[in-house]
Amino acid sequence: MPRVPYTGTASEAELERWRAVARQVAGTLAADALARDRANKQPFAEVQLLREAGLLELLVPAEFGGAGGHFETAFEVIRILAAADGSISQLLAYHYINQSGIAFYAPAEAQADWWRRTVEGSWLWGDSVNPVDPNLVLTREGDGYRLNGAKRFSTGSGVGEVIVVNAEVEGSGELLAFVVPREAEGLRIVDDWDYLGQRLSASNSLVYRNVRIEPSDVLGPVTDEPVATLLTPGIQLAFANFYLGIAEGALARGRQILLGRTNAWFLSQAETYSQDVVFQRTVGELKARTAAVAALAEKLGRRFDQVLGGAVSQPQRAELAVAIAELKVVASEAGVDVANRIFEVTGSSSTKSDVGLDLFWRNVRTHSLHDPVDYKKIEVGAYFLRGESQPLSLYT
User: Fold this and answer.
1) Where does the Acyl-CoA dehydrogenase C-terminal domain start and stop, copy by copy (predicted)?
2) From CA 348, how far away is CA 340, in angstroms rounded?
3) 122: pLDDT confidence band, cut at 50, 70 and 90?
4) How confident is the model at residue 13, as a pLDDT?
5) Which residues, 6 or more positions from 285, have their beta carbon under 8 angstroms from its beta carbon?
6) Residue 224's CB: how many other CB atoms inside 10 A?
């Protein structure tokens, strides 16, 4: 049984420390986010920026050389980075969840070695677990396994030192989580991630041809233990935070554009666009919605740590998952709406290519399709009306 090493909740000092780090990194990313998005290159330099800032080890327990931070802090970091660069925020969000597979899947006696190795190698953890693309075959071979098949949408795989894979052992029904180095023999990374947004998330396709999986590569079985299944609500909470961050980034950029305009609409009685009540009303509506989502996100970030640090029952897990689904619904809709409607107050000139306002909409529109938000609404409604939980999965 895994021993989850996370305890307690974040202090204000911890939060402030990492907020400051995240803001500094976000400032660097914001300076050329649009140019990097258009270049669509694998984000090795961006990962190095995260590494040098200490962000890759934020959630690693202090006893193994990490920062000993909390998920609440990690979620805030994700949100701050998303306001500058949604792709790199996604990379880091997935890294935190993938890396925490050590806690959720590995037996207690194996965790120390995994934590030390991730710190010593300064690993970024990618993944290859897309459950709607289960084209993998894991075959026993001696004391290990051979992996064959292909997988799309493998976030971080293009730049991560290691890649977490989930696959069922052929003929056994056992689902294992294991780790494949990016340079593993037989692994081919297909540089085919060319989508509307989140272009630097390194979400490539992977092809496995007789990749050897040693016993030491296995994190552990993927089980339905309540504490182990918290990984899924965790990543949904991460998603909501970077949708929120993108909305906040779009608002900040829109404000900058609006305040920079020295004239007003010809029918307006105001001297400038920012003084026009029509535009103030729209901005006020979008800002208020974003603030409400932020309040819920902050509340659930702390609650996630509180639940994770105790003995987790199935009812507790179900209640938390639904609460996070509620956040996912409002964060998805607010993110897309804010990133879209900010153009209403910045006008046609803000659609000029070098303004870059479209980057926020492209990013949130792309990732908000990760899993249908309508099914999150059903999850919330079924639980509220009948106390029914959705079947356990990597989406629920």
Assistant:
1) 238-371
2) 13
3) very high
4) 98
5) none
6) 10
CA atoms 372, 201, 233, 247: torsion sign: negative
> What average pLDDT does the segment 189-193 reach?
92
Cβ atoms within 10 Å, residue 172 = 10
- pLDDT grade, residue 169 (50/70/90)? very high
Residues for the chain: how many in total? 396
Confidence check: pLDDT of 2 > 60:
no
Decide: 119 and 66 in contact? Cβ < 8 Å: yes
Q: Could you give all domains of the chain from N- to C-terminal order, each with its CATH number?
A: 12-125 (1.10.540.10), 127-221 (2.40.110.10), 228-386 (1.20.140.10)
What is the predicted pLDDT for the residue at 208?
97
317 and 391 Cβ atoms separated by less than 8 Å: no
Identify whether the C-beta of residue 201 lies closer than 8 Å to the C-beta of residue 87: yes
Residues 220, 176: Cα–Cα separation, whole Å = 6
Q: Is the dihedral of CA 196, 327, 379, 176 positive or negative?
A: positive
Tell me how far apart the terminal alpha carbons of the chain are, to the nearest angstrom.
22
As a whole number of angstroms, the distance between CA 195 and CA 102 comes to: 31
CA distance 329 to 145: 40
What's the pLDDT tens digit per position in 21-30?
A: 999 999 999 9
User: Which whole number is the average pLDDT over 280-289?
Assistant: 97
Q: How far apart are CA 324 and CA 1, in angstroms?
A: 25
With beta carbons less than 8 A apart as the criterion, state whether 282 and 341 touch. Answer: yes
